Amino acid sequence: MAGEEKPYRVYRGGRSRAKLPTLPRPERRPKLDGSSPGEKKKKKPRLKRRRYGRWFAILLGLFLAWLTAWSLASYFSFRDGVKAANARLPKGVRKQLKDQGGLLLTHSTTILLFGTDHADVSGRNGLRHSDSIMLVRTDPDHHRIYYLSVPRDLYVPIPGHGEQRINGAFQLGGPALAVATVRQLTGIDVNHVAIVDFARFEELIDKVGGITVNVPERILSNRFDCPFTASKCSSWRGWRFAKGKQHMNGHRALIYSRVRENQLNPADNDITRAERQQAVLQALSSKLASFSTFLDLPFIGGDLLKPLATDLTPGQMLQLGWNKFRSGSGRAVHCRLGGTPDTIGGASVIRPSEEDRNVIAMVRGESAPQPPPPGSGTYGPGCVIGNKPLGAR
Q1: Could you tell me if 352 and 156 are in contact, meaning their C-beta atoms sit under 8 angstroms apart?
Q2: CA distances for 193 relative to 61, 109, 330, angstroms
Q3: Are 338 and 353 in contact (CB under 8 A)?
Q4: What does the pLDDT look like over 313-335, one tens digit per residue?
Q5: Tens-place pLDDT, residues 212-241
Q6: Rounded CA gap, 381 and 217, in Å?
Q7: Cβ(376)–Cβ(359) under 8 Å?
Q8: pLDDT of 62-77, one tens digit each?
Q9: Per CATH, which fold does 68-385 belong to?
Q10: How confident is the model over 303-313, as a mean pLDDT?
Q11: Shortest CA distance to 139 belongs to which of 272, 323, 384, 287?
């Protein structure tokens, strides 16, 4: 056996030049998922992403359901408040109004706004004068709203009662006679009317959390509605307001709109008071259209309209709010009628100016808004665009 060849070789180290026998590669079988052996397996979407999408859809659905329910509750509360305001409107007023003849969203409309003041305060008990008179005209085609203040001391003819101060029309014949008087004075047809009770005005402002008003100058008012005892009121000088933007509660805003004299500015008068009333009304309307008021609307919708008596329907009020939103404060046109101060029978009056006709044409949109003529003072009629006060000229 020693001479026979061994069936194997013995390698002592180093690289062998002989080729080693190799086994054939096993045949690759198809995978269970049907893909070929060399094909990369696609990653399946993560379950987390699916869960996030599902939760987002659920939350979105819940939010839309809440928004719908909240909007419906707000509308029903608001609708009930408007119906109560419609019921408070005195009879006979609607006969003095001209039919709108279209939607407020697409047709110009004129609203006559009265502010009545019959607070239980010494010197004003039982009075039912219109403390403020303002025409509001919408212009949807140009996204603009016109505000025309009518001085309450303007000496004008009152149908069936001769010439008197215009604020006396409300006391003589109620809002129906007041509407007829303003229509005769301006020649503008009135489509709607709204009467604001200033005695409850402060409640409304407090309900919406107060308003922010930009006071154009420092004010030290005349002594009225003293909040202190009789002994302290004897030395009290009056209400004070700083210059600039300031937050006011209902009582503070009501006092600001009532100020007729400013001891720091002798030129201040009933005309400038009308400008303050416009500023308060604009600040309130902006607050009513705010998101914070919308959140509280289901709870305060009826209370918001308690100071108001009007013929406007819920739908018309919503359209009016949309017009106000689209026009913005920067495009608003603030106008006033004016004239010459005079005294008749011991009463202070304002005799109308010929320039009032031009102002009425501006409010109608027939001519461009122009400020009061230079040298006309605080009684000069005219218009300004935006939030600028008319002031003295």
Answers
A1: yes
A2: 41, 11, 25
A3: yes
A4: 888 888 888 888 787 767 889 89
A5: 998 988 999 988 888 888 888 888 989 999
A6: 21
A7: no
A8: 888 877 887 787 777 7
A9: Aminopeptidase (3.40.630)
A10: 84
A11: 323
Assign 137 a pLDDT band (cuts: 50, 70, 90). Answer: very high
Q: Note the pLDDT of residue 126.
A: 43
281: left (phi over 0), alpha (psi -120 to 50) or beta: alpha
For residue 125, what pLDDT band results from cuts at 50, 70 and 90?
A: very low
Query: Has residue 106 got a pLDDT over 50?
Result: yes
Segment holding 213, helix H or strand E: strand 211-215
User: Do residues 372 and 381 lie in contact, with contact meaning Cβ atoms separated by under 8 Å?
Assistant: yes
Residue located via tokens 């603009």? 144
DSSP 130-171: EEEEEEEEEEGGGTEEEEEEE-TTBEEEETTTEEEETTHHHH
Which two tokens mark 381? 């009629």
292-298: long-range contacts at Cβ-Cβ below 8 A with a sequence spacing of 24 or more? Answer: 292/208, 292/209, 293/208, 294/74, 295/70, 296/208, 297/73, 297/74, 297/77, 297/78, 298/70, 298/73, 298/74, 298/77
Determine if residue 27 is left, alpha or beta; phi over 0 gives left, psi from -120 to 50 gives alpha, anything else beta. Answer: beta
* DSSP conformation class of 370: -
